[in-house]
Amino acid sequence: MQNYTRRFFARIKEVCMITYEPFRRMTREREISTYRLINYYKIGRSLLNRLKHDKPITTVTLNDLCCSLGCRVEDILEYRPDEPGKSSSSSGSHSSR
Q1: d(CA 17, CA 28)
Q2: How do residues 42-81 score in pLDDT, each as one tens digit?
Q3: 20 to 30 A Cα–Cα from 95, which one of 4, 29, 69, 84?
Q4: 51-60 exposure pattern, b = at least 16 Cβ within 10 A, e = fewer
Q5: Residue 20, class by beta-carbon neighbours within 10 Å (0-12 exposed, 13-18 middle, 19+ buried)?
Q6: Do 77 and 18 touch, CB atoms closer than 8 A?
Q7: Whole-model pTM?
């Protein structure tokens, strides 16, 4: 099951991209340091790493971030569809199921 999930998300990444650039922009604008996120807001280093590298997070985590930082979902993430013809991975690299 885990292998299927990994392939599923790899295919989604080819079509669209969720980015956490709004979160990074918001923390810069509010001058919230990584130190403060970890020690004051109690956001774990692993979550910050996931946000930094645009990795998936759960809706529960997204809700917790919004509650802790007093912001909206739009302040945390943004959906960016890929441009046609530009894929994040090479074609033909997926096995059929």
Answers
A1: 22
A2: 999 999 999 999 999 999 999 999 999 999 999 999 998 8
A3: 84
A4: beeeeebeee
A5: buried
A6: yes
A7: 0.69
Tokens 């810069």 map to which residue?
A: 28
Residues, the chain: 97
Which pair of tokens denotes residue 64? 């917790």
Tokens 């302040």 correspond to what residue?
75
10 in Cβ contact with 87 (< 8 Å) = no
Pair of tokens at residue 67: 């509650």
15: amino acid identity, one letter: V
Cα–Cα distance, 88 to 70 (Å, whole number) = 33
